[in-house]
Automatic annotation (TrEMBL):
Annotated spans, Disordered: 170-192
Main location: nucleus
Name assigned to this protein: THO complex subunit 7
InterPro entries linked: THOC7/Mft1
């Protein structure tokens, strides 16, 4: 902008000089020298503008290249982030599985192995079988004792009936009891 302003001012000055008809030869020479300096300054300013324009164009191209390179790097970075995110998710799953495995292992180690459990189960089954056999034997014995006890009760019942039927036997038994009680303890000792 300042270069354009300078050019504009120089143009106005040249216009003023050209319009000044009353100037003398010395003034014209001075004006001519000023005009040549102004043109040289304008030419220098134009060269500066060309250099600035070319520099700007090169910077623009470099910026566009840098922009494209940054876009590529960003795209690669995003792909890398997605890849790393999936790896992170996989590692999280592996870690969670490992923690679950460790907790299951700690629970499993509290219990005996399959061989030990199978041996213990077999031992318990044999013990149950043995107890069932003993229980059966005891049931058989109880049934036998119940039958024997029933037979004894039946025999006692029959004896009681017999004593009730035969009054003479009853009298003899009561006399015999009286005799043994009158003799006292000494007679019992002799019999022993």
């Amino acid at each position: 902008d300042s270069v354009q302003d300078n050019l504009y001012l120089q143009f106005l000055e040249l216009s003023r000089v050209a319009l000044d008809l009353e100037s003398t030869a010395e003034n014209c020479k001075l004006n001519w020298e000023n005009f040549v300096v102004s043109v040289a300054t304008c030419h220098l300013n134009l060269e500066k503008l060309k250099v600035a324009c070319e520099t700007t164009k090169r910077q623009s191209v470099e910026f566009d290249q840098l922009k494209e390179e940054l876009k590529k790097n960003i795209a690669l970075g995003e792909k890398e982030i997605v890849k790393l995110q999936s790896m992170l998710d996989e590692e999280r799953v592996k870690r969670q599985n490992k923690e679950e495995y460790d907790s299951i292992c700690s629970i499993v180690t509290k219990y005996p192995s399959r061989k030990e459990s199978a041996a213990e189960i077999e031992e318990l089954e044999q013990e149950i079988k043995k107890l069932e056999e003993e229980s059966q034997e005891l049931d058989d014995k109880m049934q036998l004792r119940a039958k024997q006890f029933h037979l004894v009760l039946f025999g006692i019942g029959e004896l009681c009936k017999q004593f009730e039927i035969d009054p003479a036997v009853k009298e003899k038994a009561s006399k015999k009891r009286k005799q043994t009680s009158s003799r006292g303890p000494s007679s019992k000792r002799r019999k022993l």
